[in-house]
């Protein structure tokens, strides 16, 4: 029985899972278009409106509208609405689309700390610089409540990992001594909202970051599927604490069609693994064995240890071949 057949919706991260820099990752469009279950896109990126995200998805060949999108900007505005009254002044650090969403929620959007906003809401945008960060810091020091759309320290771009919203939030937090309330992943709220949109009872959360996508899906008591196409690689998975361990691991979204027994941690691909003191020894394999098969074999042993293994020791030609490429 395949992973897809056991779930009634896909809750999909975007950056590093569906696309990279707006370009679709290999096989992703075909997988989503033929999976037979609804897909909701759950993104910590607050720099684009739901309408803009939907347009980008349709441009790469997917069927989507704004109702299929849940952004951290939407989530943090809902959170702020529980703390401050409708019509209150808010200072937005981030994109124009974030400001538009705030206006649609009934807030009065200002750009200066001198306007005495009731709250500062910070989301990612490439235009964010010293001036916006400073206005936000001044407002927070004057008593404004502080909210952040998400705390991702990095985000995948075509050339590697760029600076994420969490890194910019850290600058304001350092300047003010105030820790923001975050609405984005790994908080479970976005996952609950996404599942509710399609009436899902058995959703599968899919993502590339264990500290946001996987922790968030786990916190929402949903099954989680980690893809090795983005931020968190093999070594981070091996060292993952219990709350950050996915139910399933795939090289990419195309492996959603594999049987559940194959994508769970456990021996496969002719590999075997065992604990040797503080290390894990990986043996066996064959010419057709894959890196992700070796990883799943190692994870069953590594996750059974009281502390993460010190080293993964490859003890065969095929084990050495795959482990040398792990990151």
From TrEMBL:
Gene encoding the protein: yutF
GO MF annotations, alphabetized: hydrolase activity
Enzyme class name: hydrolase
Keyword check for Kinase: no
Enzyme Commission code: 3.-.-.-
The name this protein goes by in its record: HAD superfamily sugar phosphatase
Keywords: Hydrolase
């Amino acid at each position: 029985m395949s992973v897809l057949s056991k779930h009634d919706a896909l809750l999909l991260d975007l950056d590093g899972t569906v696309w990279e820099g707006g370009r679709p990752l290999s096989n992703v469009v075909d997988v989503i278009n033929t999976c037979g279950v609804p897909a909701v896109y759950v993104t910590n990126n607050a720099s684009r409106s739901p309408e803009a995200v939907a347009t980008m998805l349709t441009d790469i060949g997917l069927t989507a509208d704004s109702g299929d999108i849940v952004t951290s900007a939407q989530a943090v505005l809902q959170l702020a609405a529980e703390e401050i009254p409708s019509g209150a002044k808010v200072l937005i650090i981030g994109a124009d689309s974030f400001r538009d969403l705030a206006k649609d929620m009934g807030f009065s959007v200002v750009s200066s700390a001198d306007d005495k906003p009731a709250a500062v809401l910070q989301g990612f945008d490439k235009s964010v610089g010293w001036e916006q960060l400073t206005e936000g810091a001044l407002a927070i020091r004057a008593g404004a409540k502080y909210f952040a759309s998400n705390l991702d320290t990095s985000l995948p771009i075509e050339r590697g990992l760029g600076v994420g919203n969490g890194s910019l939030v850290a600058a304001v937090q350092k300047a003010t001594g105030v820790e923001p309330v975050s609405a984005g992943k790994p908080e479970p709220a976005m996952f609950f909202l996404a599942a509710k949109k399609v009436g899902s009872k058995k959703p599968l959360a899919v993502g590339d970051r264990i500290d946001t996508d996987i922790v968030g899906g786990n916190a929402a008591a949903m099954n989680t599927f980690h893809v090795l196409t983005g931020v968190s690689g093999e070594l981070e998975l091996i060292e993952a604490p219990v709350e950050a361990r996915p139910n399933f691991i795939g090289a990419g979204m195309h492996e959603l069609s594999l049987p559940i027994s194959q994508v769970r941690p456990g021996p496969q691909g002719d590999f075997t693994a065992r604990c040797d003191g503080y290390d894990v020894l990986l043996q066996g394999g064959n010419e057709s064995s894959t890196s992700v098969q070796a990883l799943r074999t190692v994870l069953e042993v590594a996750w059974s240890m009281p502390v993460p293994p010190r080293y993964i020791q490859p003890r065969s030609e095929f084990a050495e071949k795959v482990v040398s490429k792990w990151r």
